[in-house]
Amino acid sequence: MSKKIFSGPFLLFIICGTIVPLGVITFYGITDRSGAFTLENITAITTGEHMEALLLALGLALISTVICLVIAFPLGLILKDSKLGKKGFMVFIFILPMWMNFLLRTMAWQVLLERNGIINQVLGLIGLPDLNIINTPTAVVLGMVYDYLPFMILPIYNALIKIDKNVIEAAYDLGAGYRQVLQKIIIPLSVPGIVSGVTMVFVPSLTTFAVSNMLGGGKVNLIGNIIEQEFTASSNWNLGAGLSLVMMIFIVISMAFIEKFDRNGEGNII
Amino acid sequence: MKKTFKGIYLAIIILFLYMPIVTLMVLSFNEGKTMNAWVGFSLKWYKEMFENRIIMEALTNTLTIAFWAATVATIVGVTACIGLNAMKEKHRSVFMGLNNIPLLNADIVTGISLMLSFLLFGISLNYGTVLFAHITFCIPYVILSVMPKFRQLENHTYEAALDLGASPAYAFFKVVLPDIMPGIISGFLLSFTMSVDDFVITHFTRGVGINTISTLIYSQVRVGIRPTLYALSTIIFVAVLIVLIIVNVISNKKEETRHEKN
Question: What dotted CATH number matches B56-206?
Fold first, then answer.
């Protein structure tokens, strides 16, 4: 008896849990309610409301990803060089929120940002004007950055600590300045981590409906919200499936992107 | 100068990351119902939380689903690794590619596609469908944690055990399993956390009346957050903190003993 047989249960789960469901969602996406073939559910993305939601989702996801990257990269550099106590402990502090339920964390921001919330009370006490960003795209971006920042920090930090110290020292010995070392050595060598982090922030931000619903108060409609509503409120499953297929195209693009840069899988989070 | 700047940068990010969590923790001890004013210290929201049947049920569901999903995913994942290792490189890479799909796919697509499949095949959504969905998305994490351990394995020791008369099963449990144990443990823990943390897939595959902590919070947010949820957040945060510290201490100790041995 071959050992290969042991992968049987795994194969069963892949077929029943991944391949068949992907086939089913595709089937729903390209048929109408009566089961006849149609591309209307796919082309529906071009209608005003859907296009707007897709572009808004792309825009907010892009902004959140850039903000996360801009925050996480210097942080990774500082953590890499830090001699602050135990290095593992400092990293632990920045990763810890990731292990807490993200709906609780999003809820926390809702409490903070509310019109009579803590932030406005503090601002009022020190005589500053109110911050009215709840139920706006700004609040949604804030929530995305808060929720997904650890996903950017971890792969970037992992890539940074893998860089051989001798390479950096050699560059300094050969007369490079800090700027040059950063541009020519540290950034190029951390690309796998950056790409991994970018994907891990971009995909969930693009497809979220919970964050936009909780911090957008129903006023910020992303493509995820539109899809979710097709299954809960308006129950047009075919349209929802069709729009999901369009969204999957964007995920495939980002998978191709990660494949291109991360051939060795060095930036994997695990 | 540079050092102070770095310190300030770290402090701002720590503030950003922890201010919301700490605020919830403080508010959970507030006697008043509104979050606007501090009335006085009280544990009444904790009491109310433990007496709230819906919250307790959601907590039980979350933990039992996470436990069973992680257990089944670990068993399936480890056996899968045994089988995959016996395969040719070409076949294995196809399977590893398939294994990556649930990892890279968006949760909303995974959730919707599973929901549509259950309903198409006449399976009504209930506790079981959520559990099946969780097992499906946990398996890839187990395989990714266990597979590298298998690759590092010395095949000779296993063969030596067989030569010395051990049955394949005995040799596996005595020789192979101890070596891949760290991978199995981290795969299990990762699966457990992913399952506890999941909202989107549960949202689509759960039946009426089945709640996990995530779906409960989501539905509560629509009708208005009650301070019982702050109490719940505090307890979850403290629990996560304790578990992570224990895991870290244990793995640090192991590292140290390994260094001493070498």
Answer: 1.10.3720.10
**Residue A83: predicted pLDDT:** 62
Q: Which ipTM score applies to this complex?
A: 0.85
What whole-number distance in Å separates Cα of residue B151 and Cα of residue B92?
A: 13
pLDDT in tens, B46-80: 998 899 899 999 999 999 999 999 999 999 999 99
CA distance A117 to chain B (A): 6
Q: For A145-155, b where at least 16 C-beta lie within 10 A, e where not — what string?
A: bbbbbbbbbbb
Q: Read off the pLDDT of residues A117-139 as tens digits, 9 standing for 90 and up.
A: 778 888 888 888 888 888 899 99
A265 touches chain B (CB under 8 A): no
* pTM metric for this prediction: 0.87
DSSP string of A176-231?
Answer: --HHHHIIIIIHHHTHHHHHHHHHHHHHHHHH-SHHHHHHHTTSS--HHHHHHHHH
| Burial tier of B244 (Cβ tally within 10 Å: 0-12, 13-18, 19+) | middle
Q: Are B85 and B149 within 8 A, CB to CB?
A: no
Residue B245 has pLDDT above 60, yes or no: yes
Contact A118 B35 (CB under 8 A): yes
As given in the structure block, the two tokens for residue B144 are 């990714």
Greatest alpha-carbon span in chain B: 74
Q: Which of B9, B24, B83 has its CB closest to that of A74?
A: B9
Chain B residues inside the 8 Å CB shell of A231: 112, 115, 204
Q: Which two tokens stand for residue B158?
A: 């296993």
Q: What is the least distance, in Å, from the CA of A254 to any CA of chain B?
A: 9
DSSP for A78-134, please give it.
HHHH--SS-HHHHHHHHHGGGGS-HHHHHHHHHHHHSTTSHHHHHHHHTTPPP---T
Q: Is B156 exposed, middle or buried (0-12, 13-18, 19+ CB in 10 A)?
A: exposed
Q: Is A42-261 assigned to CATH 1.10.3720.10?
A: yes
CB contact under 8 A, B109 and A17: no
Q: Which residues of B touch A25 (CB under 8 A)?
A: 109, 112-113, 116
- Report the residue from B13, B14, B229 with minimal CB separation from A107: B229
The confidence score (pLDDT) of residue A225 equals 92
Instruction: Give the alpha-carbon dihedral of B223, B228, B230, B236, to 10 degrees.
Output: -120
Tally of CB atoms within 10 A around A64: 28
Question: B72, B135 in Cβ contact below 8 A?
Answer: yes
In chain B, domain spans:
1-42+226-262, 56-206
> Residue type for B247, please?
V
Q: Decide if B138 contacts B194 (C-beta within 8 A).
A: yes
How far apart, in whole angstroms, are the C-alpha atoms of residue B183 and residue B53?
37
Closest CA to B189 of B244, B254, B249, B256: B244
**Nearest-angstrom CA–CA distance, B227 and B32:** 9
